[in-house]
Amino acid sequence: LTGAQDGSVRMFEWTRPQQLVCFQQAGNARVTRMYFNAQGNKCGVADGEGFLSIWQVNQTTSNPKPYLSWQCHSKTTSDFAFITSSSLVATSGQSNDNRNVCLWDTLVSSGNNLIHAFTCHDHGATVLQYAPKHQLLISGGRKGYICIFDIRQRQILSTFQAHESAVKALALDPSEDYFVTGSAE
Length: 185
What we know:
The chain is mainly β.
């Protein structure tokens, strides 16, 4: 799956030189992040205008429409994570009201699908990591802060400054004992 500054999103197969599907043509907001779900049957694309769009991967048309597309953040959606079997999605980004990390239910109509919004990260959340064993979300912000959220209780457990500049990357070890952060500096 490839995404570009021009907003185009294309899917390729290893053994074929041509694209299989063009999910999104050029001329849209820049792609900020994209992932397949754990089952590999859906892909999501976040963009610079705050939207998250989700497609079924096994499309037969050359330019399929997303089955879900909604504005998660008022300024930008920088990252997201599929939680459980893809019916629950977490997003990070920047919103005017500082609700910069959100939980969404994809099975509910788009007007009611926001489950919880965390007010955190002045100037926006840049990255997000889901820890399934512990049911935690870890987010990094533009000012170098890390927030850890319990998604079962929907509360912030911890906040600390890890860097002097924006957190650009988060990685979680497979046993979920440690996580690593990387920053713009």
